[in-house]
Write a structure and sequence with these properties.
The chain is α/β, with parallel strands linked by helices. It has helices spanning about 15-25, 40-50, 65-75, 85-95, 105-115, 125-140, 160-165, 180-200; strands at about 5-10, 30-35, 55-60, 80, 100, 105, 120-125, 145-150, 170. The chain has one domain: TIM Barrel, CATH 3.20.20.70. It contains 8 helices and 9 strands. It has a 9-stranded parallel beta sheet with strand order 5-4-3-2-1-9-8-7-6. Helix 5 (about 105-115) links the parallel strand 6 and strand 7. The two termini are about 15 Å apart. The relative contact order is 0.16. The mean pLDDT is about 95.
């Protein structure tokens, strides 16, 4: 079962990337992003694509330039996630056939991102707006546009965010913190998946 959850593996290193990814995928989280401000992110992404590219959607986060998009496209990555809504990055991502998830916070940013071709919207940092803020923005967005809440959304409040109009979530430290064991990742993933299934 594919769930609308993106695992944000900020800080992961290449030697540990595959083991943690394997735990996440086994738990049912099959979309993985390695932020580009992690140690040796290109190596980690290459390893994950080679091993899990047929079983999971793998890409990068904190993507800020079209040049980075080009590198990801050349590697065969599936998605590009950004903290901001840069039309040039969005257009390059979509032209390369990858999913584009730009970070947005205002209606202006939402509609600008959609006009540039964004696959979906990453409400970030979601905790600053809260579910009420999302509900207000959601009221003016096309209903078919997927919106993921990132930053401030987690297992404890999935249901509240879902009622406000969140279609999915990006999950960072609740799933992975640098240096944690694979067992901890496995347990965190099981808890997140269980909470999602209950909220959905």
């Amino acid at each position: 079962m594919t769930r609308p959850l993106i695992a944000i593996l900020r800080g992961i290193t290449p030697p540990e990337a595959e083991a943690h990814a394997e735990a996440l995928i086994a738990a049912g989280i099959t979309t993985l992003e390695v932020p580009l401000n992690s140690p040796d992110p290109w190596d980690s992404i290459a390893r994950l694509l080679k091993r899990f590219g047929g079983d999971a959607r793998i890409g990068a986060g904190t993507v800020l330039t079209p040049g980075q998009v080009d590198l990801l496209a050349g590697m065969g990555a599936h998605l590009v996630v950004s903290p901001n809504a840069d039309p040039a990055v969005i257009r390059a991502t979509r032209a390369a056939g990858m999913d584009s998830w730009p970070g947005v916070m205002t209606p202006t940013e939402c509609f600008a991102a959609l006009a540039a071709g964004a696959t979906g919207l990453k409400l970030f940092p979601a905790g600053l707006l809260g579910p009420a803020g999302l509900a207000a923005i959601r009221a003016v967005l096309p209903p078919e546009v997927p919106v993921y809440a990132v930053g401030g959304a987690g297992a404890a409040n999935f249901a509240e965010w879902r009622r406000a109009g969140a279609d999915g979530f990006g999950i960072g430290t609740a799933l992975y913190r640098p240096g944690q064991s694979v067992a901890d990742t496995r347990a965190a993933a099981a808890a997140i998946v269980s909470a999602w299934d209950e909220a959905a």
